[in-house]
Amino acid sequence: MAVDVDSFIAFSLSVQNRRKSRVSLALENHLELLFVGCGLRYSRTAVTENKTKPGFLFPGVAEYRNPGFNPLNLTMLGVKSTCKDRWRQVLAEANRIAHKHLLTFEAAISSNQTDEMRTKNLQLVVPRRLHDSYTETQRAWLMDVSSFITLVQERQDM
């Protein structure tokens, strides 16, 4: 009987992981349409150091790989439909970019985690409608999607 239970649990986890992967891919697809509509230049899941693949690099991987391109004009956006502890994965991506961004749909991330994100130079980007689920102190620090797009546009206009 234990073999059947173990097999069922393994199958269930496999189905859950595929579902989560599809959700993240769908989120990236929607963001890509938004970025195209806003006229942003970007590379999606480009390979950087140690074969990491940030969700989006702005203005693109060619600029990222060009040592003469000012890193202050580079922007990286990691995408995670939910964060949990996986937000730390973003820190290892795109080493040329000191201040990274992470977009998520997760509401009410703990103050301890957002404080740690802030100390690690990771800016959380959350849709405006989710901001009310965060504390007042967190809301003062959060970035919404519109502000993120404005930031990228300003850097691309330099």
In short:
By secondary structure, this protein is of the alpha/beta class.
Explain what the structure shows.
- With 158 residues, the protein is of the alpha/beta class.
- It has a single domain, classed as Restriction Endonuclease (3-Layer(aba) Sandwich).
- Helices cover 43% and strands 13% of the residues.
- The N and C termini lie far apart (65 Å).
- The model has no long low-confidence stretch (mean pLDDT 89).
Taking pLDDT < 50 over at least 5 consecutive residues as the criterion, the unreliable ranges are none
CATH class: Alpha Beta
What is the makeup of the main sheet?
5 strands, mixed
Number of separate domains = 1
Instruction: Classify the fold: give the CATH topology.
Output: Restriction Endonuclease
Order of helices and strands, N to C? Answer: HEEHEEHEHH
Query: How many helices does DSSP assign?
Result: 5
The helix/strand class is alpha/beta
Helix content: 40-55%
Strand order of the largest sheet: 1-2-3-4-5
- Label the overall shape: globular
Number of strands: 5
Distance between the termini: 65 Å
Please state the second-level CATH architecture: 3-Layer(aba) Sandwich
